[in-house]
Amino acid sequence: MEKAKEAFLGTGIRHPFRISPSTGKTSMIEGVDNIKQSIRAILSTKPGERLYHSDFGIDLSDLLFENTDEGTLKEMEKRISDGLMKYQSMIIVDSVDFEVKSSAGLVNIQIEFTIRSTNTRGNYVYPFYIQEANQF
Predict the structure, then answer these.
(1) What integer pLDDT is reported at residue 20 of this predicted model?
(2) What CATH number does residue 84 fall under?
(3) N or C: which end of the chain has fewer CB within 10 A?
(4) What is the pLDDT of residue 2?
(5) Containing domain of residue 124, as a range?
(6) pTM for the full model?
């Protein structure tokens, strides 16, 4: 992607926060990586967690212990598509697919998107754990 188009996608503070060893300043993130970081923040934030933006995020927590049947996955798809449309206006969500790994208690959420300003396609995979991690 051209540098000018990449700059249009914005710059933000890298999460988790860190200091850049080369500059000694706050580490920043830009372009498509900034969009992917934003998607992760939207999916991993439950509404009510942000003090001054209390409606921000997508609530998947009530689906945590549900059976991963077609109905549950459709509900997840709707919530994710609606939430990304609301909170990440730089993209168009093309598809939301799921890779269910029941034995691992994991659903990989695969999001295909198009960046509106550049008409460039991208994807992001978000691991959603449907069962509590346990070594025993």
Answers:
(1) 75
(2) 3.10.450.40
(3) C
(4) 53
(5) 3-129
(6) 0.79
CB 73 within 8 A of CB 96: no
Q: What is the distance between the terminal CA atoms of the chain, rounded to a whole angstrom?
A: 47
How many of the other CB atoms lie within 10 Å of CB of 125? 11
Distance of alpha carbon 13 from alpha carbon 43, whole angstroms: 18
DSSP 8-state secondary structure symbol assigned to residue 17: -
* In a domain? residue 32: yes
Phi, psi of 113 (to 5 degrees): -140, 165
- For residue 102, pLDDT beyond 60: yes
Mean pLDDT check: name the lowest of 37-46, 80-89, 96-105, 118-127: 96-105
Interval 114-133 mean pLDDT: 87
CA angle (124, 126, 128) in 5-degree steps = 160
CA 17, CA 127: separation in Å to the nearest integer? 21
